[in-house]
């Protein structure tokens, strides 16, 4: 059973949205907040929806589902939970949602700045890992090697801002270096976080013991 406090849910949800979510203003002047999940994580999507309010869970063509929310009251609750907790350039989408709510519904919601607190101080990274992280084991004749990786594009396409600052901050917390997978176009190049050495693995385990993964990835962990 998953239990949330507002603080844990807010930081976790922020990381999840910044990894595998989007906030879109439609052509008909509506809003859609969507988060993509692997189909086997439908129980997590259902639990989040029950905590947040009204919305729907839609099956997609691939082996995935999307939690989709457009209801005003639920969007207001989500803004209250995540405002001030985003850490990446995707905060641009949150700000557009707040602008839309203020204009469309005559509200006065402040746009809080990016969260610059220490990475290990809250559940944001747990949500980000549930969205974009991967755990795997490699067997060799001499040893079993446990690894973790997380990839993120270098450039956020909507504003051309770089993800370098937040990903470097994660790497500094884990005491590792940030890697780059280059392509001809920088927009198609990726940063890669690799956790392979024992010290970094211990730091990651300690963090995830405090702020557990909520998706099926906790089984891989």
UniProtKB/TrEMBL annotation:
Domain Homing endonuclease LAGLIDADG, first and last residues per copy: 13-98, 125-221
InterPro entries: Homing_endonucl, LAGLIDADG_dom, LAGLIDADG_Endonuclease
Species per Swiss-Prot/TrEMBL record: Rhizopogon vinicolor AM-OR11-026
Lineage: Eukaryota, Fungi, Dikarya, Basidiomycota, Agaricomycotina
Segments forming a coiled coil: none
Entry GO MF terms: endonuclease activity
Keywords recorded for this protein, A-Z: Endonuclease, Hydrolase, Nuclease
Highest taxon in the source lineage: Eukaryota
Function text: Mitochondrial DNA endonuclease involved in intron homing.
Any Gene Ontology CC annotation: mitochondrion
The protein's name in its UniProt record: Homing endonuclease
